[in-house]
Design a protein that fits this description.
Blueprint: H1 3-27, H2 37-40, H3 46-49, E1 55-60, H4 64-80, E2 84-90, H5 93-103, E3 108-111, H6 117-127, E4 129-135, H7 141-149, E5 153-159, H8 163-171, H9 173-181, E6 185-188, H10 191-199, E7 207-209, H11 223-231, E8 241-247, H12 252-265, E9 270-275, H13 281-290, E10 295-297, E11 310-312, H14 319-324, E12 328-331, H15 344-348, E13 352-355, H16 363-371, E14 375-377, H17 381-393, H18 395-411, H19 415-426
Parallel strand pairs: 1-2, 1-4, 2-3, 4-5, 5-6, 6-7, 8-9, 8-12, 9-11, 10-11, 12-13, 13-14
């Protein structure tokens, strides 16, 4: 498939994309998907964007995880280079909300344009970015092509390329290879990522191995105060508590089966359940309520009593707080084939970390944590229950895992400095 065929295909599926937005808005329900469609088509409200006299850096972070990963870099760029305007784009409402929480009004935020010529070129005309920073794997043919054509420098920060994605690029090499060769710099997380990019034709001069900026994790300054406030909701905070964080569709049922086994051995165990997407809060609650468990929601003005089995984290931006309530963490997206969510957040908090086998989003990081004894991989819900029971009953073992995770993070920090220096190297003078 070349870019001409890609463009024709994109125009053909665009009505389906719009219908999918409507479906998510009406039936999930997630009303945010029905708003700000103009931005997705490249129509930027210049009054809303503001500060048009500036030159712009465009940072594209698809969703919540990428937004968090890139936030230290964006904050440093704004602090040390205030003459540059920064526009951060996301694809999802949850990503949009997270960007607003992270940066407030300090940057401009709009949805990313869909990857067809009209939307991308309208967006580029509005901002005229001098540099485009794509986060991790957010590579889109028209975005790259027209950004390069406009004269912008293009960089991929925190770049990763799994074996699965590599095979996809090989399969569609007529589209993927020309796109990759238009990128000025790829800052890869690992040597393996860099080698896969090299095999796709990226020259050595455009490749650097910087490590992952996700190791440069910063915990909120007010975290302890927020945790103390949240603990007031727990009538019996000395209960054994574990968290199932960032669970995906089809995974809550597996967590439920594990929880039923855990409660047989530890009847007082409390589960803190935090679904990945807000449109699933209600369905996740129903799964556990239908099984006869009392569920208390974060959004309710209700205390967690001794009879409460599940505390549902139905809010955004509070995952570190929820994790701080627990003694160990299962990280979701890993018992279904969606590639695991961020395992570094619980590790930074000193928690023992458990994941399922699907880890391709954080493969190298999971391997590093596992080698240090900070992370366990389980293959199904029965094994998950066994490890949660063991660790809840063995304080020494889980504390050793937590300490190993914090040491692994400390040993791998520094990618932020390396990526920031590379940005400055490729950023034109104002």
């Amino acid at each position: 498939m070349n870019r001409t065929v890609y463009n024709l295909a994109f125009y053909m599926v665009l009505p389906l994309i719009v219908l999918r937005l409507l479906w998510r808005a009406l039936f999930l329900p997630a009303p945010e998907y029905a708003r700000r469609w103009g931005e997705r088509l490249g129509f930027v409200d210049k009054a809303r964007a503001g500060r048009q006299e500036r030159r712009w850096i465009w940072v594209h972070a698809a969703s919540v995880g990428e937004s968090v990963a890139i936030s230290p870099l964006v904050k440093r760029l704004r602090r040390l280079n205030p003459h540059w305007g920064i526009v951060v784009t996301t694809m999802t409402p949850t990503g949009s909300e997270r960007v607003r929480e992270l940066f407030g009004d300090d940057i401009c935020h709009v949805y990313a344009p869909y990857d067809y010529r009209g939307a991308v070129t309208r967006f580029l005309r509005a901002f005229k970015p001098a540099m485009v920073i794509l986060v991790e794997t957010e590579l889109w043919p028209n975005l790259v092509h027209y950004s390069k054509r406009s004269g912008a420098a293009i960089m991929v920060a925190n770049a990763r390329l799994s074996e699965k994605s590599f095979r996809g690029y090989e399969k569609f090499s007529a589209l993927g290879k020309p796109m990759l060769q238009q990128i000025d710099l790829i800052a890869a997380q690992t040597a393996d990522d860099a080698e896969r990019f090299r095999k796709l034709g990226v020259p050595d001069t455009a490749l650097r191995v910087t490590g992952s900026m996700k190791f440069d994790i910063g915990l909120p300054a007010d975290l302890q105060a927020r945790v103390d406030q949240m603990r007031l909701r727990l009538a019996h905070s000395d209960r054994p508590i574990w968290i199932a964080a960032s669970t995906r569709e089809g995974e809550d049922e597996k967590v439920l089966r594990a929880f039923e086994l855990i409660r047989r051995s530890i009847p007082g165990a409390l589960l803190v359940l935090v679904p990945r997407h807000p449109e699933r809060f209600n369905s996740a609650a129903r799964i556990f309520e239908s099984a006869g468990y009392e569920v208390v929601r974060r959004s309710e003005d209700t205390s967690v009593s001794a009879e409460t089995a599940v505390f549902l984290g139905d809010s955004m931006g509070e995952l570190p707080v929820y994790m701080s309530l627990a003694q160990l963490a299962f990280v979701g997206g890993s018992l279904v084939n969606t590639g695991c969510q961020n395992v570094l957040e619980p590790a930074a908090l000193g928690l023992a970390v458990i994941t399922g086998p699907s880890q391709y989003n954080f493969q190298a990081i999971c391997e590093q944590l596992q080698e240090r004894g900070a992370l366990l991989t389980v293959h199904d819900e029965t094994a998950l229950a066994e490890q949660v029971i063991r660790l809840l009953q063995d304080r020494s073992a889980r504390e050793q895992m937590g300490l190993a995770g914090q040491q692994a993070i400390a040993a791998n920090q520094g990618a932020l400095d390396r990526v920031y220096d590379l940005v400055l190297e490729h950023l034109p003078s104002v």
